[in-house]
Amino acid sequence: MSDPLLSVHGLSKRFGALQASNDITLDVRSGEIHALIGPNGAGKSTLIQQICGALRPDTGEVWFDGQNVTPLSVAERARMGLGRTFQISSLAMEDTVLQNAVLGALGGHGAPFRFFRPVLKDAALVARAEEALARVDMLKFADKRTADLSHGQRRQLEIAVALTLQPKLFVMDEPMAGLGASGTKDLTPILSALRHDAPILLVEHDMDAVFALADRISVLVYGKVIATGTVDEIRADAAVREAYLGEDA
Amino acid sequence: MSREAYINAIVVAVLLAVPLWAWVADAPFIITLATRIAILALAGVGLNIALGLGGMVSLGHAVFFGIGGYAMGILASHAQDYSPLMEWPFLIEGTKSMPVIWLAALLMSGLAALLIGFLSLRTSGVYFIMITLAFGQMFFYFTVSWPAYGGEDGLPIYVRNSFPGLNTLDPIQFFLICFAVLGLALGFSAALARSPFGLALNATRQQATRVEAVGIAPFRIRLVGFVISGMITGLAGALFADLNRFVSPTMFSWQTSGEIMVFVILGGVARLFGPVVGAAIFITLEHLLGGVSDYWHIYLGALLLLVVLFARGGVIGLLSSWRKASV
Amino acid sequence: MSAILLIEQILNGLQFGVMLFLTAAGLTLVFGVMGLINLAHGSLYMVGAFAAAAVAAATGSFFLALVASLAAAAAAGAIVEVVVIRRLYNRDHLDQVLATFALILIFSEGTRWIFGSFPLFLNIPEALSGPVTLPGGIQYSLYRLVLIGIGLAVALGLFLLINKTRLGIQIRAGENDREMIAALGIDISRLYTIVFALGAALAGFAGALVGAIQSVQVGMGEPVLILAFVVIVIGGIGSIKGALVGSILVGLTDTLGGVLLPSFFKLFMDNAAATATGTALATMAIYILMALILVVKPTGLYGAST
Fold this sequence. Notes:
Chain A is α/β, with parallel strands linked by helices. Helices cover about 40% and strands about 25% of the residues of chain A. The N and C termini of chain A lie far apart (about 40 Å). Chain B is built from 13 helices and four strands. Chain B has helices at about 5-25, 30-55, 60-80, 100-120, 125-145, 170-195, 195-205, 210-215, 220-245, 255-265, 275-290, 295-310, 315-325, and strands spanning about 85, 90-95, 155, 245. In chain B, helix 1 packs antiparallel against helix 2 (about 30-55), helix 2 packs antiparallel against helix 9 (about 220-245) and helix 2 crosses helix 10.
């Protein structure tokens, strides 16, 4: 696959006076982790929403896996192989860990309109769900209620659910959010290994994690991509240092 | 077996034993009460799929109950005066056969649920509640003002419809039909909750964004859930009309919607047997308190208020956690 | 159809609409500020009507009857808010629906217990009864005309209250951001009781005013409540402006539909069939209006889009 798996062309979105996305162009290539960083309010979430289909851009296009997906819904993009995780864990809290993973497998399989046979007796779905849980070391909690999980375990389950889709691309919105230093350290190798399943568009605040994981970084400031490049290029970029890293330091 | 399963088994046993005892003791009135309980419980089982599993707070389920009732009323009234229901573009004759009437009730209430659901499920939360209530009222006023089938006065059916091999005029046999239908609906409902669709519907209630993100459109899941729910309540409407041998716009009234919801809540939302327990309590109270005071709705209101404020999980929830809480 | 009849029907629709507004305004305020769906709002409408009828029967004064309706409904509202409603703010909509449904049962049966099942009558005061001649020679009921005036005056008063007063600022703050009211040092539970009682008073007032042209009876509140829901769905939840526009749309659609649809069907049907079809369709007209608006704008005309 030579062309990029995901490419965003000239995406713009305005909310009243706020230009949340301003002519954004970026792409994600096979095998890479492409990190998206930027200060709070830079428009990262708005961009993710447009890539995943929850928001329609005012202008511009989103191409995924060789197809213009701009008019497609969230669910349609997910079925094409776009697996996303949420900044704030979005899981069925009353259900068990396994049920959440099976739900993902069910969505990926595309056959939710079956009304009689127990879903947990569907060996193919359960196997897929368990495999994904094992990948993030969550299989041992399969029968636990999601509400009883720790915050870190929920973050891992988020990733497992995305894995059940066997996606072509991951879009991860701050997977490290609220994990603390040790949690971030545990999750970093897991994410790093995932790039061999599918490339990752990674939104992340934790700079150490970003620098450890990313193959390329794009910097978003006031809805505009001010720089894209390798870790070293971004570290060296004067504009980035001034607009973003400089503020943090 | 869990405590809830014991309670469920006891409820079924009592609901079956009391009318059988009444049959032996020749107390047809008790059998009729039990039949009412079974039918109204069935209506609640329908609503429970939308409400408990899908989190869709429909205050308009009387629409489906009423449509089921009128499906029976219209078909049977044409059969009793030997006039065809319609001749163009194809001939439809009336019928007195319960299975055919049930099929018509399921079909028509399903269609209505599809239409109402399609419009109402574009919204959520409090809008959904108000809109379903409003659509209920629309059907109510329509039946009141549409004179062809009795209008405001309703439509009497002189003889109860027939079921192959049974004498439906015998109270105990009619009860057993209703009890069997309730049993089937409960079985279906239990299977549904565990099925792939049930998993998706239940997850849609809890976290629709998640369901969407794994490639399942929440709107379709909710709509199908709403249609299944409406069909079961519609079937209950057909049986209810047959029990009374009478249909009227009251079946469409907002109070009917409210009462069906009360059955579900009184017993316990999303609990399989919640509607059965709720309907049993409601009808028994109506019978007992109705004999004591003309104003028994005050006591019902107070009880309901207490359940909502202090006994979340309904009566089954209360009973199945009683011991745990006190020990 | 003559122009005079049409104008008369438009006025009727307007009168119906502004009275609906009085009920819908409280409902939408309570939802906007407290996030509560209150099915018992129709009961407060009924309480106002019964209080007015009882006071009118005892004193013979229509003015005192109106005062009584305001006071009784506001008091009933405040009591219900303190005893029951405030326990529901943090509950989900289902609990709110059920608890307020229970309140309807209690209010309705309680009223039946006190006043009996027969309707009461509230007479239009002498000075306002009879027709008045409008420009163009149209004879129209003076009382209904006064109702339109009162309704519009109350609407204006509400706009001023919300936009110009301290209470209004607090209400708007509550609609936008609950935490902000606490930050402003406002006593939230007192604000909620006042808003609820205000909504109740408006509903009770409407009940008394309308009670004089219809009968005062148990169950009179719920049809109005459901229409008020339709109004709010059309106008957008929480918006007073939406409630006003929605009320007048519903009032006009309902009244004009009842007159125009049968005449419309008479153009190509025989008389009896046209009347039956037209009347049946007219009863559905406002719901069809609601469905159409929902298709175009699911959050109502003035609702915040989500």
